[in-house]
Amino acid sequence: MTLAELKQHFITELETIYDKDESEQIFLIYLEDKFGLQYTPHNKVEKLDVIFSDLDKLKSGIPIQHITEKAFFYDDFFFVNQHTLIPRPETEELIEIIKNDYVKNPPSSIIDLGTGSGCIPISLKKIFPNANVSALDVSEKALEVAAINAKNLNTDILLIHQNLLEDFNLDRKFEVIISNPPYIRNLEKEEMHKNVLDFEPHLALFVEDDNALIFYERVIAFAENHLTENGVIYCEINQYLGEETKTLFLTKYKNVQLIKDISGNDRMIKATNN
Ligand SMILES: C[S@@+](CC[C@H](N)C(=O)[O-])C[C@H]1O[C@@H](n2cnc3c(N)ncnc32)[C@H](O)[C@@H]1O
Fold this sequence. Notes:
- The protein has 274 residues and is α/β, with parallel strands linked by helices.
- It has two domains: 3-60, no CATH class; 75-272, Rossmann fold (3-Layer(aba) Sandwich), CATH 3.40.50.
- Helix content is 41%, strand content 20%.
- The strands form three sheets. It has a seven-stranded mixed sheet, sandwiched between helices. Strands 1-2 form a two-stranded antiparallel sheet. Strands 7-8 form a two-stranded parallel ribbon.
- Helix 6 (119-127) links the parallel strand 3 and strand 4 (132-137).
- The chain is globular.
- S-adenosylmethionine is lined by residues 85, 87, 91, 114-117, 119-120, 137-139, 142, 163-165, 180-182, 203-204.
């Protein structure tokens, strides 16, 4: 079988769950991330038994990143599994904003709340190698993944096992507090793809419809004892709750910016008292 024939086979087989462009994209990611191959239509493929078994998994809705066990984020590949959210491109925009804000005067301390794969603190540690970077999550399994990524990418970050919904004090302050917490309401499940709903951890995704901003309340409560005087909070937010989230931050912070992502959706909040 040639790669061109295999590509067509992928598109036909995946038709029931992905559209043609998505299937083609998945095929190219699969070739590159699993076998390190570029698409050369006339080349013949080997290992068809492995490929067909992976294709069956894809057909059942398992995300391509769980099959290749890697996801690209910002500048690096991160190991991912069923215990961590697959890093999203929107979150890369948050990294870019922080990088630009601190290009002349790097922060000395950063903490990421709800770190999952560790993609945020590890990317920031690579940008600001002298910063003390910490990362917190309630999921021990997610922290294990973050530890693997920190080791693979040669970054020294402190991992903290802690439930953000409980009161706690780390007895330290941070110049940058960043969080991409769970923010999808149950009522938004209908518009979500099966591969997210069935295979990504609900702990990382969902909040109660009637308490959708709970994690932002907790970030604000954490910041009360843990943000330096001129520190800044950066959060990824639910695009449908931009104004509500901004209003919440304005109860504690003087300057609150609602920032749109590249698709024009309300996606980030930046809050500071200066
Ligand atoms: C939306 S994911 C973000 C993961 C990663 N930061 C990223 O951007 O890809 C939210 C993360 O918050 C963690 N989390 C959920 N509930 C939490 C809690 N009560 N305390 C601390 N972390 C929590 C989840 O385990 C998950 O890793």
